[in-house]
Specification:
Immunoglobulin-like, Rossmann fold, 2 domains, seven-stranded mixed sheet, five-stranded mixed sheet, 6 helices, globular
Length: about 270
């Protein structure tokens, strides 16, 4: 089955259709009442953070979903994630449009997770450096690439701490035409390094600026950290690259669109 749908939201939860599975997950911003209360009883599974974090009932087998002609392997995880953040869909489309306009550019995707942004760039013939601190997530991203016949695409798969990698790239003199980053609020690097967005982000962006090519194409910065509003995101990216920066909320589209993080974008006009 294709695509993703936000069926309903409310009472701190969201009801989502991921291909063949209808699922309930937490959504702290959904403080309103559900619009379609009868539909929730049809859910195949629900993830709860109350007590032990778990799916009830458990879904044992992975499955596939297709969004904008791009295929993804999904599976339930202990943190309630499924291997895709559908609120990023408009950003994936934006990446593809940017690469189409500019040809075979080089793209660095930091905190790259299961690779949706990597695939968006690679599908339009960009060369991509895909970096994530989790070996398991990097393997998952490679599976997604294989699902889309991109096994031979010019993608470098790197398991490393983002800051350490950037410092090495600076020393090597390596440059990229575009950077995509979606830093977590908190995370650990490949060797246990601690990342806290409020402490590490300024330094991280300083390093990113140093590895942009002389004629950079674009920068896409997104996050799910409370307090990082579109205005905050705009100012952060503006101070990194200057020029015209657009920012906004990432939304899950439905009867009542559900805010699900923020983004800021810069493109070289």
């Amino acid at each position: 089955m294709k695509d993703y749908l936000l069926i309903d939201s409310g009472n701190g939860r969201k009801l989502e259709q991921f291909g063949k599975h209808l699922l309930i997950r937490p959504a702290s911003q959904a403080v309103w009442e559900p619009s379609h209360p009868k539909k929730w009883a049809k859910a195949a599974s629900q993830f709860s953070r109350e007590g032990p974090m778990k799916w009830t009932p458990a879904i044992q087998k992975p499955w596939e979903i297709e969004i904008d002609d791009c295929k993804f392997k999904l599976q339930t995880t202990d943190f309630g994630h499924l291997g895709i953040f559908p609120e990023q869909k408009e950003n994936w489309r934006w990446i593809r449009d940017q690469v189409k306009k500019r040809g075979k550019i080089s793209v660095l995707n930091l905190f790259a997770y299961s690779g949706a942004s990597t695939l968006a760039a690679a599908m339009e013939s960009a060369s991509v450096c895909h970096l994530d601190a989790s070996k398991g997530m990097c393997s998952w991203a490679r599976e997604n690439a294989a699902l889309n016949n991109l096994e031979k695409a010019p993608i470098r798969w790197i398991v490393d701490d983002a800051e350490k990698f950037l410092l090495r790239e600076i020393k090597r003199g390596n440059k990229y035409d575009a950077i995509i980053l979606d830093p977590p609020s908190f995370g650990r690097g490949a060797k246990g390094e601690v990342f806290k967005i409020e402490e590490n982000l300024p330094r991280l962006l300083h390093y990113c600026k140093q590895i942009l090519s002389d004629r950079p194409a674009f920068v896409l910065f997104s996050c799910h950290t409370p307090g990082y509003t579109p205005v905050v995101m705009h100012h952060i990216l503006y101070q990194m690259v200057g020029g015209e920066v657009t920012s906004g909320e990432m939304l899950l589209e439905g009867d009542l669109p559900l805010p699900s993080g923020t983004y800021a974008r810069w493109e070289n006009g």
